[in-house]
Amino acid sequence: MKMNDLAASGEERSLYEVRKAIYPRAVRGWFAAWRWAAVWATQLVFYGGAWLTWNDRQAILFDIVHRKFYIFGLVFWPQDVIYLSVLLILAALSLFLFTAVAGRLWCGYACPQTVYTEIFLWIERKIEGDRNARIRLDQSGLSSRKVFLKGAKHGIWIALSLWTGFTFVGYVTPIRELWGEVMTLSTGPWETFWILFYGFATYGNAGWMREQVCKYMCPYARFQSAMFDKDTLVITYDAGRGEPRGPKGKKAPDGSALGDCVDCGICVQVCPTGIDIRNGLQYECIGCAACIDGCNQVMEKLGRPQKLIRYSTTHAMEGTPTRVLRPRVLVYSTILLAILATAIVSLYLRVPLKVNVIRDRAAISREVGDDVENVYRLQIMNTTEASRVYEIRVDGLEDIHIEGERRVEVDATGSRIVPLRVRVERDEVKPGTHPIEFSVRAVGAEKESVREKSVFIVR
Predict the structure, then answer these.
(1) Secondary structure (3-state) at 64
(2) Which alpha helices (DSSP H) does 203-289 contain, by range?
(3) What structural domains does the chain harbor?
(4) What is the pLDDT of residues 294-340, one digit of tens each?
(5) CA 444 from centroid of its chain's CA atoms
(6) Nearest CA among 234, 236, 226 for reference residue 328
(7) What's the CA gap between 364 and 376, in Å, rounded?
(8) Taking the CA of residue 410 as centre, how many other CA atoms within 13 Å lie in the half-sphere pointing to its CB?
(9) Alpha helix stretches (DSSP H) within 67-143
């Protein structure tokens, strides 16, 4: 029907689909166990990681105020931003590789949206009951029981969300200090804002929006098809075995025997996004395999073979051998391993000493007696967790030397700016610009040595 026909008929239609509430049914099975194992693993790392200590400090701390990132025994400074870039590249390549091989495994098992939705659904089931009980409760009128159950559920959701926001901020502000501030209601404005912000985001996304985040907000659902091919392992329904579908004991309209699918709808009832996998692979499918566990339970009760719904590939369903080692997988794997190996070697060879040489621009050069003098400032950064004494030398010209102190002490994970006066005998050097090199070496730790180039100017 055209727009003018609709206008003439007076019929109104919404441009947006009204959301239908989804009540995922609880399911047990092999994949559900794996999903809960991922929930436990990710949450133990997230909630527990902030409380670990290392060398009398928080083991994992992204101290933005002091511009230092602590990850166990490593200390990263703003100059180490390259490692953050490498980490993001590795994460992207890993996602591409896993998607090409086995579809949306990240979405189905480890994505924070999936993990927290699973936790919130578990709380909802414990308080309100399973699927049918929740549907009846929502359809019932207002009562004291309904108010109590809804209040208890949302109260626990909010408490968990605020604890999540607190833990998130605890990776930026030392969590023990933050806990003391929370207990005395003395948190700063930014800390308060971010605790509430991340708490609200957790509560809204996992408690209310749920599948809408996966279907409408997550860009991954939109471009995942570009990484799929006929050899990608995805959740599939075996239509050849299941169709025509119908209740057990009945026959198809043409009198032939029905397939193994009894059209019970369990695969739809357990799906967190509310799709019917029997209609084929859809972008809303997050690959959680709840439909596989649900269908396997039904097949087991009916005494029929399991895996009517299973992880498989398009080629396997067509009877063609599946290729695991194909060009895109090999390319992703090679690049990923190369970057990972380079990053590991770089971290192993990383010198925990950084030096910046800055010439004094106020005075290019000056004559002091029989010498020509240039003034420099050396910024020495000690990224180790022990104080260091550094010895400073300069080379590059005949009889070049440093006037004044040549040894400096820098505190653990600290920095210090050292002014240096470098001199050369006037008769030993010609006018112009001459390359020189500063050497900074830790006393007692010979491997902690850095050489930085600069210039010596004679007018």
Answers:
(1) coil
(2) 211-212, 220-223, 239-242, 266-269
(3) 21-350 (no CATH), 353-458 (2.60.40.10)
(4) 999 999 999 999 999 999 999 999 889 999 899 999 999 999 999 99
(5) 39
(6) 226
(7) 10
(8) 27
(9) 81-102, 105, 112-128, 131-139
